[in-house]
Design brief:
The chain is 32% helix and 27% strand. The chain is an alpha/beta fold and 329 residues long. The longest helix has 20 residues. α3 runs parallel beside α4. The model has no long low-confidence stretch (mean pLDDT 94). It folds into 2 domains: 135 residues, NAD(P)-binding Rossmann-like Domain (Rossmann fold), CATH 3.40.50.720; 174 residues, Dihydrodipicolinate Reductase, domain 2. α3 links the parallel β4 and β5. It comes from Occultella aeris. Its EC number is 1.1.1.312.
């Protein structure tokens, strides 16, 4: 069977990693790369650096990886859809809901596979967490809280922390819980002198009543990536930096010391850190997209799901501007 001919547009910080994975992916040949700004990391190898998306299409590709700045996602994606080329577009799907909806509609209407690079879904800790939630290991889910903070990445210039980092947490929360957001309330801060926000706190509500909370910033000297899911039987803690998953069980042993018992709700039980396989999330993402193109069962982030994430992010920004809770629907 002939290999899929892949193209890559965007040779920046993420583009270099996509190029590495595409070159090592079974059943795929990276045949063309493009970036109007050249190849700052030297990832093109023997391939010529093409000037734009149209030159990439003319190279005769089956699918494209789009890793250009967010503001160019809609333009590049629509060109690919018009040419009958499948596409995996880095997150967020587009800079606004209008662009995201146009992309989702275009790929669906053309019968093409279109996906969004929400890489956190493929983190081994979150993959294991979702499987355990589906198996009922936590019982009813009460709350999902995330913390995603670290230093400012100089590569980001066209969006704020909500759309760049917060969309990770919005997407993974809806995916882990298999529930849509129904409302969000948020507060933002502008501390680094940029036009976009660099800190946000978001409180949300999912369709099944699960309460969510997301703390995201570009202002912390340390890097933190945590997802904490609390439910009827205890709490899961997923550290996606280390791909570790830990379970804190509710205890079955009553606390006999009355002065201590009155300050505790549930009691402390066993703590388990799971031994899980840890493949590279970016490779898992690309394998899933390749399989989807080939018509095999694959868990990709669809463009329609990517649109929903952009809508929640914009609702959070609207809430921060107006001071009001925003209902999604």
């Amino acid at each position: 069977m002939a290999k899929l001919r892949a193209g890559l547009i965007g040779l920046g910080m993420m583009g270099r990693h996509h190029a590495r994975v595409l070159r090592s992916l079974d059943g795929v040949d990276l045949v063309a790369v493009a970036d109007p700004g050249g190849d700052p990391h030297g990832v093109a190898g023997a391939l010529p650096v093409l000037p734009d998306i149209h030159a990439l299409i003319d190279a005769g590709i089956d699918y494209a990886m789009v890793a250009v700045p967010t503001q160019f996602h809609t333009e590049a994606g629509l060109a690919l859809a018009g040419a009958g080329v499948h596409a995996l577009i880095e997150k967020p799907l587009a800079k606004d809901t209008e662009g995201a909806r146009a992309l989702a509609d275009a790929f669906e209407d053309a019968g093409l596979v279109g996906a969004v690079g929400h890489i956190e879904r493929y983190n081994p800790a979150l993959q294991s967490l979702r499987a355990r939630l589906e198996a009922g290991e936590l019982g009813d889910v009460y709350q999902i809280a995330t913390r995603r903070q670290g230093p400012f990445p100089a590569r980001i210039a066209d969006v704020g922390v909500v759309k760049d980092l917060g969309t990770h947490d919005i997407d993974l929360t809806a995916w882990v819980a298999q529930q849509a957001y129904t409302s969000v309330a948020a507060r933002t801060a502008f501390k680094s002198g940029r036009e976009h926000e660099d800190l946000v706190a978001i409180t949300g509500l999912l369709a099944d009543g699960t309460v969510t909370n997301h703390l995201v910033n570009w202002l912390s000297p340390m890097k933190e990536r945590l997802t904490v899911v609390t439910g009827d039987k205890g709490t899961f803690v997923a550290d996606t930096l280390l791909a570790d998953l830990t379970f804190h069980a509710n205890g079955n042993i009553p606390t006999r010391w009355a002065d201590v018992a009155q300050f505790r709700g549930v009691s402390e039980g066993d703590v388990i850190r799971y031994a899980i396989d840890k493949p590279e999330p970016l490779r898992t993402e690309h394998e899933a997209f390749r399989d989807a193109i080939l018509g095999k069962p694959a868990d990709i982030v669809t463009m329609r799901q990517g649109l929903a994430t952009v809508a929640v992010a914009e609702a959070a920004l609207e809430s921060a501007r107006t001071g009001r809770t925003v209902t999604l629907g």
